[in-house]
Amino acid sequence: MEPSCLETAGRTAQVALEFLLANNTILWRIGVKSKRMPHEPRSALQPGRISRREWLRFCQKFQVTPDGHWAWNGSRDKDGYGRHSWRGEVYGAHRFCYIALGGVFPPKLEPDHLCRIPSCINPSCLDLVTTKVNVLRGEGITARNARKTACLHGHVFTKKSTRISICRMPNGSPYSRRTCRICVVEERRRRRLRLKQT
Which of 60, 68, 133, 148 is the most exposed place for a label (fewest CB within 10 A)? Predict the structure, then answer.
């Protein structure tokens, strides 16, 4: 006899609960009724404030893999991160899971996937860091350039040989640009030689 979706979700939730309790990661407060403060919107997601029925519905959308990851099977965004709808609002699945299990996001901090699997929603795979740290840990062009120790022509980046300039993107946000002074000097020398030859 095939297990029902509710039974499957119940087993998934039980595995998730056992994992959390074994690792002492986040306090389990699912289904605990708490009074809503007057200034809080009715649909505001607060740590540990979802019903058991909502948690079981959420658990239908992920499965616990043998290596400890919680693989999201629901809808995802273009970057592969899970999306979950709750009371008319759409949340990142990893954020929803973290907050639903009692986690709190301090101001100016965001979750970073230590496992580098965007679809994983396991709270123990998340590390709360600043946006700068999160970007530099990634594999984007900013992170790749920041890890470079020399320019394209092999000149090592040092304080003396590197110029840092502040530029602005089309939307007005600032960003820093690193330029090799040795390459600039050599390019100016080649330009002067070309002008002399003409």
Answer: 148
